[in-house]
Hints:
The structure is a homodimer. Chain A is of the alpha+beta class. Chain A has 2 domains: 4-138, Jelly Rolls (Sandwich); 151-225, Arc Repressor Mutant, subunit A (Orthogonal Bundle), CATH 1.10.10. Helices cover 42% and strands 24% of the residues of chain A. Chain A has a 4-stranded antiparallel β-sheet with strand order 1-8-3-6. The radius of gyration of chain A is 20 Å and the shape is elongated. The structure holds a DNA duplex.
Amino acid sequence: MENFSEIKKTKIFAEISENDMQAMAYCLKIKFKNYNKNTLIIEQGQPAEEVVILLKGGAKVENIDTFGDISLITKLKAGDVFGVENSFLGETQYKDNLVATENCLVMFLNRHRLITPCENKCKRHDLVVKNLMRVIVERNKALMEKLKLLSKKNIREKVLAYLHNQSIKAGSSYFDLPYNKTELANYLSVDRSALSTTLSKLREEGLIDFDKKHYHINNKAFEKLQ
Amino acid sequence: MENFSEIKKTKIFAEISENDMQAMAYCLKIKFKNYNKNTLIIEQGQPAEEVVILLKGGAKVENIDTFGDISLITKLKAGDVFGVENSFLGETQYKDNLVATENCLVMFLNRHRLITPCENKCKRHDLVVKNLMRVIVERNKALMEKLKLLSKKNIREKVLAYLHNQSIKAGSSYFDLPYNKTELANYLSVDRSALSTTLSKLREEGLIDFDKKHYHINNKAFEKLQ
DNA sequence: AAAATTGTGTTGTTTTTACAACATTTTGAG
DNA sequence: CTCAAAATGTTGTAAAAACAACACAATTTT
Lengths: 226, 226
């Protein structure tokens, strides 16, 4: 099947065989499309008729608020999903922009077909729904984690807590962030230059070290968090 | 069935008949317990073996961070659910405190039984899973909404955006908040006295008005948000 | 390889926030 | 109803953040 090697790596179609996938392809009205770097894949406010899966490349999710300010919600990599919540809530508009940060191959699924398992025709549809659920709950967890970050009193605590989280996830005190400094400031909803100052101070104090997107957090910093 | 009038009002058992409920009761190992006001229903860090449903009364969800600071996550009312995400992610610890803010009647369900529909025995189990999913997606949406609030640059914008949201939800420019000023400050992660000052200023400018938990947002304020 | 664009760190200034202290009001328990 | 506890609004001060401007570095484009 076309692009199956990428499809099987996605969170939603994990554990699905090529045969089963074939059976579902028609039912889910699967479509594929390529996007060039820096092009808009989904525009905030447009009718949300499809669930979007990133098969190759990378993208970012952005939100434009009523003041026109743009904030970076998150970055997506191959296998990640966009617009799932809409399906379950029956919401008819995408609430964020999806922008290709690299050349992308994108898969579209009909959102109505996705959540209502069809009789007989496609066998493993129930497993897909279960996978979907997992994706949503994981996002839920990520959102709560970010919420805790943004609830911190000052930039210093936000940064330390974020680096601490990422370090835990990487399973090492050395780790890479998906963001450059400008993006990190945006992600943490703080001023870029203020973030830069804070990072420099933390480095000066020997609590952290960093180079480009590569970071190291010292044990001493962990202690500060206890 | 015991407490069925409350159970059928919950989000998870919406549309379930008393007969079906009866059939599920054993399978889900349903238990009931009463809690007095200001007592701890669930303690952060304890083993998460059950999903908690508030049948009567009110409760608040709090999180204690590594610094020992307590933040108010949300308030629950009759019919609301706690600890569902744990079930899906197979997480073994509750990540927040659940505290009764009034005398409560609480229902506990076995988390393992909840997400794995049992064969034959309880008929409408699949509908329950669907309801659960809806609950999670709705919470997801609420989390994203709060995230957008906390991303705002200053208290003024946070408050205006929050009041705007609540006004939309209420479908009127007059509405009640579930929080007093102290709790609102906590919810928005800002200093209480700073919030108080901001609210006073907004009232002085004629953008909003309020008395206790009752608020009114003026059209002028809406315009500021465009 | 050169040029243009974007990212980064630093500094000084202005604005906003947190913090602390207090008087007053409201709430809730007995 | 009374009294204690909690919530609220206000003020002044200290701390932190946002903002703006800039030089330099890194990256991307051509």
